[in-house]
Design brief:
Chain lengths: 252, 315
């Protein structure tokens, strides 16, 4: 099975994100890390590839920088990576991102596309659904417990009140939630091999996709922070303060 | 102008999120609802009461709704017009919104907390854990597609008359189709998390599924609902339906009690609208204290049992 996994390099989430004051884009350092949410998609992709003697190809759009995040993903065991890095794609919206990724995936050929439900920095949570429409495949979103058998893929899809079992024919797209599997740690061997795995780089014009502009950011302002209240150290009687607060809120 | 609202049926009724959207949509004029589910007269009455004037009803049966709903909605928007289409934050809302945007080749603004239509369409959304507000002007030709944050608007019945209901056929979506084979509802005890006046949530610092039991007990005593962080959902201590935050539920109770929760931005975005926040954490530097009205630096295993004892004495 030919498995395409969409992964994103993002600025280290432990550091505070800064926005460019002119165009409001997140400032991306040269060294970016693999988005943690994507580790779950990679793990599922690797497991399915192992079962079917398939391959896992990573697809990523954005400034390549030092490729640190992509190497982290390759070190987990993916076979190769296709990057789309193009100055004209800076500040792209979700739809342009989906069009670019879909074009690159379609060019390469696929049986299954795996993406995360939400990226840590963008979190529009709509890129996978847009890709499924463009590629004309079912979108199996909020997926956990994935099984592929006889050309069919079956998942459990989380819903507001529980889950449903959903089944579709391949080719299909899976959008996986975090926590569905335990992502593997790269081995030393994996890290060494990652350095020599193929990484192709494409531009928007290689894919024949033109970014469209349908929205413009007019302003970015700080949201007034919630005022913090009292913080007290528990010396054995702090629970009485809680009782008092519950009384004031009239819930007891 | 005409605003459209996407409504998914949840347990026999229009989703709470769709009723919230109707409050906003009707301030812009006539409202058309695109409704996905079995449908019933009770549902139409509820929608009418909240301001819907027309309802298109798609019953996808056992098909996964996203692809057929997006295809049908795209056709209707083309024939009927409509300047703005509002989606909630539900799983199906997001799936349909994404597919529709790609189908129409239109941008989709997500995470919206307000929409202004006085001079073109401008959408306010919050990013970076709700610390920054972004105003986005939609420059593409209508319809403008907007997906909102939960509870951005308050649902309010205005006593409108019954809407006109038009049943639409399920389009053939070819290889984009998928089938729902089974549906499971995870039983949750106590009041509904999204509607409860008190929410008691637990985090990883409780240590284990057994440690979580005191959160259940405290919630029971306060007649509240139980929530959790993604860390405890991932650990399997409570089901996913308990998750509060960016990828879980958004709650706005009277009182939110956070037990051993660090206060990660993705959690906070789902509960910072609570009227009173009480946090118990042993780390004085935990970010949750920055938004708590009352913060207790202490051990949950000491403070929570004492609190439970005190509440039991009062009962
Ligand atoms: C894209 C994305 C989406 C996400 N969506 C969500 C979401 O919807 N909801 C969500 O909750 N998270 C979400 N997360 C995860 C989030 O970033 C945090 O990892 C998570 O909220 C942490 O959960 P926690 O507070 O339980 O655990 P931790 O961060 O590990 O915190 C545990 C806390 O317990 C305290 N503690 C330990 N022992 C004790 C004790 N005995 N007494 C008192 N205190 C104690 C510690 O001091 C610590 O502060 C998301 C992450 C990403 C990347
Ligand atoms: N620039 C990108 N490059 C590769 N994958 C992406 C990109 N943006 C989004 N994705 C994929 O889409 C998922 C959801 O992202 P988002 O819609 O931005 O929340 C991510 O987890 C990725 O799998």
């Amino acid at each position: 099975m030919n498995i395409a996994v969409c992964v994103k390099q993002i600025p280290d989430p432990a550091a505070l994100y800064e926005l460019d004051s002119e165009n409001h884009w997140v400032i991306r350092p040269n060294d970016q890390v693999l988005d943690d949410t994507d580790r779950f998609g990679i793990e599922i992709g690797l497991q399915l590839a192992e079962e079917s003697e398939g391959t896992v190809t990573l697809f990523s759009m954005g400034p390549s920088g030092s490729l640190q995040g992509i190497r982290q993903a390759l070190a987990m065991g993916a076979d190769k990576a296709v990057l789309i890095d193009d100055e004209i794609l800076k500040g792209s919206d979700a739809l342009t991102t989906a069009q670019i990724l879909s074009a690159a995936i379609a060019k390469e050929g696929f049986d299954l596309v795996v993406a995360g439900m939400e990226s840590t920095d963008g979190y529009t949570g709509t890129v996978p659904q847009m890709m499924s429409e463009i590629l004309d495949v079912p979108c199996l979103s909020f997926a956990r417990n994935v099984e592929v058998e006889d050309g069919n893929v079956t998942i459990e899809r989380q819903t507001a009140s529980g889950y449903e079992v959903v089944s579709a024919k391949l080719p299909a797209l899976l959008a996986v939630t975090a926590g569905v599997v335990e992502p593997r740690y790269p081995t030393f061997k994996g890290i060494m091999q990652a350095k020599s795995k193929p990484v192709d780089t494409l531009t928007a014009s290689d894919l024949g996709v033109e970014p469209h502009i349908g929205q413009t950011i007019s302003s970015v302002t700080d949201v007034e922070a919630r005022a913090s209240g009292t913080v007290i150290e528990d010396e054995g009687e702090a629970y009485l303060k809680i009782v008092e607060t519950l009384e004031q809120a009239k819930v007891i | 102008m005409t605003a459209w609202v996407f409504a998914e049926e949840i347990e026999g009724s229009p989703s709470e999120g769709s009723l919230e959207l109707l409050s906003k949509a009707r301030s812009h004029g006539d409202v058309t609802v695109f409704y996905v589910g079995d449908g019933s007269d009770a549902s139409w009455t509820t929608l009418g009461n909240h301001g819907a004037t027309k309802v298109y009803h798609l019953d996808p049966g056992d098909s996964l709704p996203s692809a057929p709903a997006a295809a049908s909605l795209a056709d209707l928007l083309e024939s009927d017009g409509g300047e703005v289409v509002l989606f909630g934050a539900g799983n199906t809302d997001r799936d349909v919104a994404g597919r529709l945007a790609a189908r129409l080749g239109k941008p989709l603004v997500a995470g919206a907390i307000d929409i202004d239509a006085t001079d073109g369409i401008s959408v306010t959304s919050e990013i970076l854990g709700g610390t920054k507000a972004v105003a986005t002007a939609i420059t593409a030709a209508s319809p403008a597609l907007v997906a909102t944050r939960p509870k951005a608007f308050a649902a309010e019945a205005v006593g409108g008359s019954a809407p006109e209901v038009v049943s639409v056929p399920v389009p053939d979506v070819g290889r984009s189709g998928a089938v729902i084979v089974e549906r499971h509802v995870e039983a949750s005890v106590g009041p509904d998390l999204e509607a409860a006046a008190v929410v008691v949530s637990g985090g990883r610092g409780l240590g284990s599924a057994e440690g979580f039991e005191m959160v259940d007990e405290l919630a029971r005593l306060l007649e509240g609902a139980v929530g959790g962080t993604r860390a405890v959902v991932d650990a399997g201590w409570v089901p996913y339906s308990y998750q509060v935050g960016q990828t879980g539920k958004t709650v706005k109770p009277n009182v939110y009690i956070a037990c051993a929760i660090s206060g990660a931005m993705q959690h906070v975005v789902g509960m910072k609208g609570s009227s009173t926040i009480i946090a118990i954490n042993k780390d004085p530097d935990a970010p949750i204290f920055a938004i708590a009205d009352l913060g207790i630096v202490g051990d949950v295993h000491t403070v929570v049992p004492q609190l439970i004892g005190a509440l039991k004495e009062r009962a």
